Structure formats: C-alpha cells, structure tokens
Amino acid sequence: MEYIRVTKDNLEKEHICCAISNNKDVQVSSKKAWLSDRFDEGLVFLKSVERGKCFIEYIPAENAWIPIEADGYMYIDCLWVSGSLKGHGYSSDLLNACIEDSKEKGKKGLCILCAAKKKPFLAEPKFLKYKGFIVADEADNGIQLMYLPFDKKAEAPHFKECAKHPHTDEDGYVLYYTSQCPFNAKYVPVLEQTAKENGILFRAIHIQSREEAQNAPTPITNYALFHDGEYITNEQMNDKKFLKLVAG
Question: Which residues lie across from 143 on neighbouring strands?
C-alpha cells in the first residue's frame, strides 16, 4: 500500500473522507477547514492512495482537542481502516509510521482514546493492547486514555479533572462537538431541527478552539451527547436514531 501525507499544499485535491465522494460537500469542506488550521500546530494526516477509509491523524498532545495532560506525547486523533481494506496490515503500517515520525520528533510516546469495550468511532482496544498500549487513565463513563511509552520511565499521561467525571448542569439533551469529524457538519443540524420539530429540549455546543476543547466536561470532544447532565454516547446520530433514543 502506498500512502500520501495530506498537507496545506495538496489538501484541496485530496479526498480526506472517502465515504463522501463530493469534495464540495459541506462535511468535507468543514473537515478540510479544521485540518488546515491544525497543520501549523503539528498535525499529520496520512492516508492510503486507494479510495477507502484508511488513514491516521495525529498531533502533539499539547495541541490536541481533548482535555488531557500529556506533555511530550503525540496524540492520535483517529486511526481508521474499514471495509475491504481491513485485514491487510494497513493499521500496523499507519501506526508504525506514526511511531517512527514521533520518535524522530523526540516524543515520549503515543496516546489515544479507547474504551474497555469497543465503542463507535474509537480505536479497537484489542489491537492497541497487541501493539503494546496500556491504560493510563479512565473516566467515569468508561472512556480510557491508552498510551505507548517509548521510554518506560516516561510519566504516564492522564485526563484533566473536568474529563474524569463527565457531567453537565443542563437539563435536556446537550451535545458537545467539534469540526474534527466531517459528519457533524451534516448531522448536528439534523438533530437540532428534529428536536425543534418534536419539542425536545436540545442544545448543541460547537467547540471552536483548542482551549475550549481542553477544558470540556468530557474526554471525547468531537461528539459527546448528554441527557439531564449525564453522558450518553459518542455515536453520531441521524434523526431516526435520535428519536429512538429519546423514546427509550
């Protein structure tokens, strides 16, 4: 497999979300705008040349859009291989490239969000454990911070206190999200409209800065849905899924 590093120079011509073929789709343009602003902060986006969901996205942990203390680490935003591309060792290829690059940059190790049991849009815990990752910290909702130290003496990263105990003080449904996930550009407005039409108390909070993300009341910031203060899920929803959730 051949891989391409997406940069500011080739961002406009590259397909960064191969599930969406139209580069002018609002989801793609939203994600590309977010990426463009992150490249100067050290973000790396490495993808397969083939059309398919096969990529890794990582950034120095100090610049990551999640509430962690992980100075000197590289944080993996997303490692994603799906469909017919699974089972060919591409996840290992991408992870190894990240490890090599991070070592060359003098990082202490890697860290990534996960969970004891596989959750949507989070890394596969069995794969990470096989690759030597260990759990560094865990929030009350079961979201874990796993890490791969390059030096066994390196201090382990951890969640900030605001993320350890996910909670909001608002009634109804509250969604925290960022533009890191392209699907949010389409489906968050769908949820807002669905809630309005059905008289459901709902508020979407668009996290638009690293500072906001690093102080959010949730370890997952690209999509975190709460109800009456309690965390529910990180799974992106369409109108049908949302109404089914509300109906119980």
Answer: 115
